[in-house]
């Protein structure tokens, strides 16, 4: 649910951001932009006029799906933005998952399955399916993030398929990829504050 809280909550003095989402104000804005009466908007959404009226009251609550529908009728859409106002995209649904079909931990970074950790190379597990990806815990994640130029998402299934094809079929490109991987790993190791590699494979 999106909670409207108090009507027209003033921006927070320290951050300049509104502390609450103004449901009523945005529903009213959508009706003004769309030139819609309450009755007309209700008919478009398959709701009662009283429901639309309730959305426009102080402290109104509305489901995200209904809010998106309200805004769409006025040519508007919901968006998530960061503190600079830059829109933040959702995590892609086709990102790689583990062997049980579960998402990898969202707060950690996932590496391709060909970047097998040294511990697994020296102590292979033949009782498990090949890993779909590898992730490391916060210490090494932070080391990698310190040397990467940009933030990276978990790879998608399509991206890993493309990488696998390049590594098998394009020697020159494969060499460049492996060299870049090696440089990144070496750079992350140099900024490692303490401890050892903390790799975990995808669960069986």
TrEMBL record:
Gene3D superfamilies: lambda repressor-like DNA-binding domains. Residues 27-57 form the HTH cro/C1-type domain. One of its GO terms (molecular function) is DNA binding. Residues 117-127 have a biased composition (Basic and acidic residues). Residues 105-127 are annotated as: Disordered. PROSITE patterns: HTH_CROC1. This is Helix-turn-helix protein. It comes from Occultella aeris.
């Amino acid at each position: 649910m999106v909670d409207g809280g108090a009507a027209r909550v003033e921006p927070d003095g320290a951050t300049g951001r509104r502390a609450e989402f103004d449901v009523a104000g945005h529903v009213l804005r959508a009706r003004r932009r769309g030139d819609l009466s309450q009755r007309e908007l209700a008919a478009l959404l398959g709701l009662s006029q009283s429901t639309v009226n309730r959305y426009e009251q102080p402290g109104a609550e509305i489901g995200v799906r209904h809010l998106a529908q309200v805004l769409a009728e006025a040519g508007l859409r919901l968006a998530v933005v960061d503190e600079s106002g830059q829109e933040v995209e959702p995590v892609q649904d086709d990102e790689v998952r583990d062997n049980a079909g579960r998402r990898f931990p969202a707060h950690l970074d996932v590496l391709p399955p060909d970047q097998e950790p040294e511990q697994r190379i020296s102590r292979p597990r033949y009782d498990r399916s090949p890993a779909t990806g590898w992730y490391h815990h916060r210490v090494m994640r932070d080391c990698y993030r310190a040397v990467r130029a940009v933030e990276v998402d978990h790879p998608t299934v399509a991206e890993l398929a493309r990488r696998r094809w390049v590594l098998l079929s394009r020697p020159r490109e494969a060499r460049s990829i492996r060299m870049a991987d090696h440089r990144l790993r070496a750079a992350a190791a140099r900024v490692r504050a303490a401890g050892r590699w903390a790799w975990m494979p995808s669960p069986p």
